[in-house]
Amino acid sequence: HAIAKDPAMILYLNDQENKKRSPNENFAREVMELFTLGIGNYSENDIKEAARAFTGWQVNLKAQFYFNKRQHDGGTKMFRKELGNFGGEDILNMLLKDKQTSNYICTKLYKEFVNEKVNKKYVAELSDVFYNSNYEISKLMKHMLTANWFYQEKNIGSKIISPVELLTRYQRMFNASFNNKKFMLTSQKLMGQVLFIPPNVAGWKGGRDWIDSSTLMLRLKLPLMMFKEYPFKYAVKPGLESRDSKAFDEKKSRYEKLKLNADWQSMYNIFSNFKEEDLTQKVLDALIVAPHETIDKKLLSDFASASNNKDRIKNLMIHVMSLPEFQLI
User: Fold this and answer.
1) Whole-model pTM above 0.90?
2) Are 60 and 18 a contacting pair, CB within 8 Å?
């Protein structure tokens, strides 16, 4: 119930304009489509009647939820074949009572944390735990993360890392920071995920939608650009809602070198103890989550060739981070 009454939720989904004389269906539709039942598990009449029940849910000048009784439709409503004088809380309770809500949420969580290819048996197992615990998210996550099937080989390295997760991974590995602070925003735009600016109410699709011919090449070149200061050419396309139709112009593409402050010493400390002939395998084991038996280790070793051990470790890590397999988590 709390998130449904969050001021940001109410304003973003137009429930501020949902009044008894002119119901706005957006909030009711998205509550069912995105947060509870999922598409195909409700009717248009359910949307209309739920919208009536949510009338009067507004945000005051202090950015707090409040119930505007004068704008609430207190009439009888027919929602999911039940008749009653329902309010917003009643609608939410009825949605939570339907196990389809648990199934839908668990399916989304399975795709996010386990595998995009859904195993209906395991989702049903999760849904039982979630529903029977009265939607206790901690119990659900504990069950998921400790299940034997969570660690099956097919679920390891099966997910394409998101742009923000990828950038965060680099920053945390090397305690890194960019001299050009704008690059964090630019890189997010180039890879298709700007924090707090989703493409629509549903958010980013994720998975294979992160990858196309341009974003994949940028991802693979990013380690060389960051750690070897290789120049790159780019032009940021405008967002879908951009008012500036001339915002994207290929002729205005620009070259830039990244200057990154990175702490390599911790990596040297970890890998300097290994023999040269074992180094490639150790770096692969540390950085690549997905199966990597088919990666050409000799070729990587040749790329990493250097006159001293520190440069060898650095070169090897940069080339391993440039592999497509590094994009899988």
Assistant:
1) no
2) no
